[in-house]
User: Fold these one by one.
Assistant:
Number 1:
Amino acid sequence: MNGISRRHFIKTTGTAGVALWLGISAKGSTRKVSNVATAKNFNPLILVESNGNITIFNTKPEMGQGTFQSMPAMIAEEFEVSLDQITIKNTSGEKEFGDRQRAGGSSSIRTTYNDMRKIGAAAKTVFITAAAAKWQVDESTCYAEDGKVIHQPSNKSLSYGELVEEASKIELPKEPRLKDPKDFKILGKVSKRPDIPLKTTGKAVFGIDVIVPDMLYATIERCPVLGGTLKSFNADDALKVAGVQKVVEAERIVGKHHFTGVAVIADSYWNALQGRKKLKIEWDTKGHESFNSKEYENNLRKLASQEGIIDKNIGAIDTIKVSSQNTIEAFYETPMIAHHTLEPMNCIAHVQGDKAEIWTSTQVPSTIVGGGVNDVPKLAGFAPENVKLHSMFIGGGFGRRLYPDYVIEALNVAKQTDKPVKVIWSREDTTTQGPFRPMTFSQLSGSFSDDGKLVAFKHKVISPSYQESVRKDFEKTKVDGTMVEGIAEQDYEIPHMKTSYVRADYHVPVAAWRSVTSSTLAFAHECFIDELAVKAGKDPFDFRMELLSKPSDTKRVFQKLRELSGWDEPLPKNKGRGVAQWKFFAGQCAQVVEVSYDPAQKTVKIDKVTAVIDLGEVVNPDNVKNQTEGAVVMALTAAIKPGITFKDGKVIESNFYDNPVLRMNEMPVVNVHILAEGGKIKGVGEPGLPPFAPALANAIFAATGKRIRKMPFDLKIS
Amino acid sequence: MITVTVNGQRHDIDADPNMPLLWAIRDILGLTGTKYGCGAAQCGACTVHLNGESIRSCCTKLSRAAGQQIVTIEGLSANNNHPLQLAWNEMNVPQCGYCQSGQLMSAAVLLRENPNPTDQDIDDAMSGNICRCGTYQRIRAAIHRAAELAKEGAKS
């Protein structure tokens, strides 16, 4: 979304007569349009109807991160309408709303903040101009408030609805004047999210809740050995189960991986599940039947001896002289994990001839209607204009719903029946079939000069490659930037640095998981910084601050964190604090974790977590706090709960009883502080995750003297 | 035919008596506020009340509900005004919201049985309900707040 279109147009709607659409062009186009047909190139986010109804469209799917409110809020602020006055509608990949209808990378606000405000401001301007012309007064004597224009001297007013016709004839200004932030009524204030009442009454409709008349249900048996292929199946017994109508093959495409499963289609989901139990399937496990995690992890450890591909080489690390006694090394390990969105993967597809209609929860509506590396119409064999999507509320995304494999698969099932079919993954399907966050192993070393300054730092990452899993055309001789995310970008001033990557082959599909590779690399990196502080004989916070002599965001965040966390207040015996921070593409957060150690029980308890998140600008502060509290919960689960492991080619874990997530009784107290001091606008959803695990591990070291170098780790100290 | 009363309304359901109540509620009665999360009584997203007690409808056979009173999230209050719902809204508890029907149904039984729950009581009653978004801190605070609201409501 690059610029505001110069034109908008009148459109007749079914219910409210004349309506005015305003928006920004998808590609920053400024060409004039003269009729409704060509205006479809535009991205109309505001709809004002002559009856006074105002609708603002949200292009970023709502998965709990708050975009259903925060996206329209940025427009509403400048448009001078209150949030109570507007109807919010989610978009579903329609071309007129542009090709950025996706939510991921904590990007929704940070990449659109100024554009959304401009859209609102430009729209407000034409209504003021229209009113002034009608009243034959000077525009400067008019202002807008609560969806109407007011003539200040006379106090007469006209609502936006009353001004629709006149306003639609006026050109939108290209560079409208934005409000002074001190006049903000919505942005930066705590405000109730409009989706919450829907979520306390069961009325919010998630993908899995959609009911399409005449719909069938399907469940799919997929090869338990990941990477296996379908040899043959016998559906005779399955077809005898009451309600089972058809058994078909269905291809699923996730990145470069193509899998084929066997789908049982029935009149109810329950009957489909009964039929699935009766399937007789022969798989070709393609040599993957002996694959196991232990062996694979040993292989990663061995690969650590390779030089790897250089990511960044700063200074002269290969030629400087450092003594071995001034050098320490460490090796860190993290597991593969599942996303565990509470709403399992599901999709309704209805294929009629060469047309497809889809109802689903997705982070990527634009991909489902065509585009990008996972272009659904292309992969499922439809013309993009023949695919119609209904994008629903999402019961948890966390990166999993960036991948439309479950949509492609549902389309392939639906091609084989005339009726709409709802494919639901069971929890076991969701746990065992991936894609998963890959594990990363890290080899680190740090060296001090004789006068005690940290002069050299190396971080080598050994892991499977995310990009290789996604792209067939991945160039193996190059660094997968995703897998070394952030490790060369911290603000610490270290003169000589080298970051590198050793790629490991992997046949298991891997995926972005909330905060992507920062969710594992920050653990290694920031724990090792702590180890260096110990080596230097310094307080871990002091040590970090000494590496931050110049002004930086990290320094500013740390200063606030030190004050709020009470870092300098002494702690009794068997208590400890740990600190960590992380700066990466999504944003920046730093945390202090305070723990107590019970030497009799040998257990650690988390007493409190203090988080400072740096945003630049904030839309809904309470929502940011909720997101960051949740990020800590997800990071704590990843730190202390078992990951996903393989034996005999199959995922061992299957449901929450053997792949648990954090529960209420394990919830620590989390205090979140927001920094919104202008400058670069940073993301909300992910930055709370990466610093948590290292801050916790560093706190455990402070309280117990035990250094943790492997996730998941136990709060029972051995 | 199995007769079940759901949110005060009688339904005659023609389905496999072994079908979990969850799927009967969702797919036959069309009450989709009750969610599928795990199918193994692990996550609590499917929590409903059977004769006033919390049950996991994903692991409760339809036959067990025959002749019984079921209440789902849609029947928790007439107008989103159960003290828990008021507190949930006041404190912006949900994120994605998928687990919240189950959280509210579990909390409703807790609050009815124990109008002044301590943190420990909340842990005990609510640890069967997973929130993957991690809203536990807010759920805890909102249950305390709902307890206050219930008392204010009783006084007025």
Number 2:
Amino acid sequence: MPTSILLVGTPKGAFILERAADEGGGPDDWAIRGPLCEGWPIHDLIVEPGGGALLAAGGSPWYGPAVWRSEDLGVSWTHSSVGLTFGDDGGTSQEPIKTVWSLAVTPDGAILAGVEPAALFRSEDRGATWSQVTGLTEHESRPTWQPGAGGLILHTIIPHPTDLQRTWVGISAVGVFETLDGGATWEPRNQGVRADFNPDPHPITGQCVHKFAAAAGEPETLYQQNHCGMYRSSDGGLSWTDLTANGLPSQFGFPLVAHPRDPDTFWIIPLNGDDRGRYVPGASAAVWRTQDRGETWIRFGDGLPQQDAYLSVLREAMARDTSEPVGITFGTKTGQLWHSDDDGVNWQLITRDLPEIWAVEALVRD
Amino acid sequence: MAVVLLPRSLLALFPGVERRHEVDGADVAAVIAALEGRVPGLRDRLVEDGPRLRPHINVFVAGVPADLRTSVGTDDTVHVIPAVSGG
């Protein structure tokens, strides 16, 4: 029987929730395991294609950064940070790596890791050893990079699904970059994206990208939730169109999740604004879905608290599985985990007592 | 040989590793290098770029706060203790 699995990253370790895939979404249906990874703060969790190993990105305030790996669905873990370093001279960074922030797997099985302070590392041996992709931090704009409220973090990595030479990354508050040559050189991809907090609202870099994702089956179509708007690109990030005026309640939010099969559909959770408390608008929780690439939006709040809900959802804390209809899950900064079995239309609370939720990943396994 | 005592939270990262070790090393850096030979990956948990001890890792040699360059005598006890920090 298929099993629905949720991987959750928090400042107090990783958690794994499981239930039979055909069960309801009530809290009693889910079994919770954790905290895993020895209680280390975990910013991202992914499933390695093929073998199905779990990878967790984190950093301990005592013991530094590492990537954790489990071959048995989280029962046992190993960790490594061999090569996760800027070198004893500090390399291009002024400070050592604090934590691993994001993970992705390339089509040829390499693992990419984004770290704080922002840099990209690559592993060719399933995470045992790492080497820096120095072309990114050697970009001419590097001396101007400034952190967002969450730090100078490389939080999003999108390998092109077929072209091994191409990868996009997102750095706060620096913007989107793309490599066309396997990481040797990188180009900013921020044209059309506003930076309202900057004297020049259209700099080449300095945009505060919060999250972006590629449309299913269309790697040139990218959707981006930014500090200053919701955007779509149809040309691989060369230019972006602002979608905020298409009925969204706010230009501000963090997570964005693309449909696994439909390139027109993605979900977001708008928050009320960077200077208004950063919680759901009107303290009324909702997930917003578009089915036409951001031209129109539908608000879904059924099952979610509609008053006195001062909830915030962070950039990595929403995920979708590959079910039909799609299962969507998001976690809040106050430890509640919400799940929908029907494309994000109706919602049920799974648990309200986790630590601050930093990351969610969802999968269905036979 | 010096005696090194490792903290529980560090041992949890390396299943099967004992708390107490007897190692040779003229200073704290050499002691940690010797431990790395027995427990691959351990140095990364204690030392960051610089190299220097991680900010919230305290090492004491014969009860005195130490850094990587602190000398270690053959009869010394080296305590590795995570700082009282967190939330």
